[in-house]
Amino acid sequence: MGRRDSPVSPAPVFCKLRKVRGMQECRMSGRMEDIMIRIEDLSVAFGDTEAVKHVNLELIDGEVLGVVGESGSGKSVTALTLMGLVADSAQVTSGRVLFDDVVLREAGKPCDKALYRQYQGARMSMVFQEPMTSLNPTQRVGKQVEEMLRLHTELRGEDRKQKVLEAFRSVGLREVEKVYSCYPHQLSGGMRQRVMIAMAVILHPRLIVADEPTTALDVTIQNQIIELLREINQKQNNAMLFITHDLNLARRLCNRIAVMKDGEVVELGETEEIFQNPREAYTKRLIEAVPSRVKRRRNAAAESGMGEPAGSGPDGKIPAGGEAAEKAGTEQEECAVQGWNTGREQGAGLERSAGQEKSAGLQECAVQGYRKPILRVRNLSVYYKDGDNSLFSRRKKQCVVFGAEFELYPGESLGLVGESGCGKTSLSKAILGMNREVEGEIVHTTLRPQMIFQDPYSSLNPTKTIGWQLMEPLRARAALDQAFAMTREEMETAAYDMLHKVGMEDKYFHRKPSQLSGGQRQRVSIGQALITHPGMIVADEPVSALDVTIQAQIMELMQKLQQEMHLSYLFISHDINVVYRMCDRIMVMKDGRIIESGETEEIFNHPREAYTKMLLGA
Amino acid sequence: MKYFIKKLITLIMTLFLVSVAAFLAFQIIPGDVVTSILGTEATPEREEQLREELGLNKPPVERYFNWVTDVLRGDLGESYRFSKSMNEMMPVAELIGDKLPVTLWLAAVSLVLIIVIAIPLGVLWARSSSHFLDAVLGVVTQVSMAVPSFFLGILVTYLFGILLKFFAPGSYVSYQEDFGGFLKYLLFPALSIAIPKIAMTARFLRNSMLTELQADYVRTAYSKGCTKRRVMYGHVLRNAMMPVVTFLGMIIAEIVAGSIVIEQVFGLPGIGRLLISSISTRDFPVVEILILYITFVVIFVYFLVDILYRVIDPRISEV
After folding, report:
1. For the complex shown, is ipTM > 0.90?
2. Domains along the sequence of chain B with CATH
3. How far is A207 from chain B (nearest CA, A)?
4. Which position among A134, A296, B66, B182 has the lowest Cβ density within 10 Å, counted as fewest Cβ atoms?
5. Percent of chain A clearing pLDDT 90 (strictly above)
6. What is the pLDDT of residues A288-321, one digit of tens each?
7. Which residues of A touch B (CB under 8 A)?
8. SS (H, E, C) A134-201
9. CATH 3.40.50.2300 for domain A35-289
10. In terms of CA atoms, which chain B residue is nearest residue A208?
């Protein structure tokens, strides 16, 4: 259906007909006489801090403009100001926002909400990041989409419903009648985002603002949603403001890209132009920070001249048994024990220099061959009991991981890849002993593997200082085993030591998590995991909550520490590029089973399973 | 269906445990019924005779089972203290049956007042961008919550009874005689009960709504072009009601068990007063039944709250 059929009653300001232009022309013409959206010299401030500084952006019909930047760059505030959704506490301190020459927002004037309501939904709509929380949890999704029609059209009852169903079909939802009467929680993430998009496009608005619409989704779903947005853009010829932190995504979808940093647009241009010849240093950094398969993987082992990545033979298989391995095994055992002692002493802040010597020795030991796994998992099935804690109903046991088998070798990074719900977190919890509903065998030579969690914002106790949190694992260990008892001074030294190790200054010792940035918090999380010198770390999506440049720093830190402390990582991620950069070997997990595993290069270059190919293609 | 059966079994088990506890408690606490009925001057023979009449000479386990089977058959026993006529004691069922409607009606009127006033007030409060209204409501609710209920009862009596002459203090009309007059009289004690609860509920609802207003779906609603009013009533209120419903459940459970102080201040013959006097005179049959009643009410109200949860929030698994 064309836009002319759109049921929106045109407001007087919309007399002129829209010209439908070819895509090519759009790209060619940075400036046309009838620009739809004009953001002129826009500055937005919250109190004294300016979130957006003198931003100029223009959009014409049919164009997709990407706004790329890290969190805090002002990209979302710009979009929300354009949409009239920015918080009341925000003040427009300079410039104005125009839609077809109508001033929507101007510096020094309060937001005209009545005027905006004519535009919101009907002429410009928004797709948000989190499809779960962006839909009202207590209303059926059909009703929520229908509200658009209720607000902006004269349609009644059955007509309205039919139009909603039609919109559902147009965004690729199936069984639309059923979806119509579902609540958001009954739909999958991808379906919810489709519902959100249906809501955004149902009135055929001329502008769609998409604020990180795929960030919360699995890779394969991400692709589908991007394709859907592209398709809608081509069919309906609406303009789109695509906000993302992911340069690769922007590259795939956008005609032009604006790079934002600290509230300013630092670079603006045609997409390929930006990628081929970035003018600004920041843009270059941003492009480089994106983990990409094209770039050589920076491998800690390779850099230090250790040759083959730990634990994997040249043919990508793990050599198990064998004479040489056995010999090396005994040696390694010693190493492991030594490693432990080293760890303890280091933790106690004693003989630190000696500790360093030893860890150097350890590396040598590592080079000579480590064939004895630090972790061996045999035929492991993990169950999870239904939450209903009732007297009467027998708890149902559900199997979430089926017969997992793998080994993790000292000094190695093993990637565990899969989409949400595939059982990767359940598997890691079983290894850490946080889920005891298991069958099979888990043997690890380290005392207590530690974990790095995904969300540094919620995984640190907000009421305690960083120093306290760093010392907590030491206290916990001492409580379990008197042999590890340490004095307060020893613990403090160890905590300061760890703070330096993760690249932070002394002054953070007495700070609370709220005073730290996301990257700093994740550094603390890493410090917390390492302070007991566990030898083995389970990292559950350790960088996926972070900005790209911070992501790169944290990955670097993890690689550095791996080398220094001879750590083994079990690295869980849904981001195939991150895994590529971090891991020596990869396991692909689907529906609770490990369907493919092998050396990183091998998997990337010659994936065997169709599913792996799909993940990689994503 | 399975859900209801489960709930029913929980209810029965709880009542059983409570009945054992109530029965045991009166075996342990000091004080003798016989002494409290006959006074300290009675002869040992007379005391022994009364013990036999009341069945107190049998072992506790036997007495418990006799009592439970009687209760299950519908015979709630007889009061030790109140007599119906010269040689007949007052049955507990009759005693409570007389006073229960007073308490229940008082609770009902209070509850209606709370819901009808607190919910619009809470929404208004959350919506208001006026600092003045915000400050006024803040102080008023703070004061209402802080004032002790007996004092509030006295204030209400003074203001509506003596100054405004809306009702005559102390002129309680029994519901059997004049139901209209009875309800009219109840309005004022109900108000005394309701005022602090209204303040709490309104405050609670306001805070809950302010939290909900930060939610992403509110922004979505605005992005569609909804007015603030529509966002408030159409989207936020239902989500914000979840914690408020729990709170209302607690309030209901509290007032249905009888507001001892308010009944006393307004001279209402309700459960609360009966409970106090029965405990002090060791009228065990009455107290035990009252304990079972209160337990039942509390569990039942929570059951209703549970159902209401499922109605409000579809995310909680369907019944």
Report:
1. no
2. 2-94 (no CATH), 99-312 (1.10.3720.10)
3. 12
4. A296
5. 18
6. 777 655 444 444 444 443 433 433 334 433 333 3
7. 83-85, 113, 116-122, 125-126, 128, 130, 133-139, 147-148, 151-152, 183, 185, 196, 199, 390-393
8. CCCCCCCHHHHHHHHHHHHCCCCHHHHHHHHHHHHHHCCCCCHHHHHCCCHHHCCHHHHHHHHHHHHH
9. no
10. B223
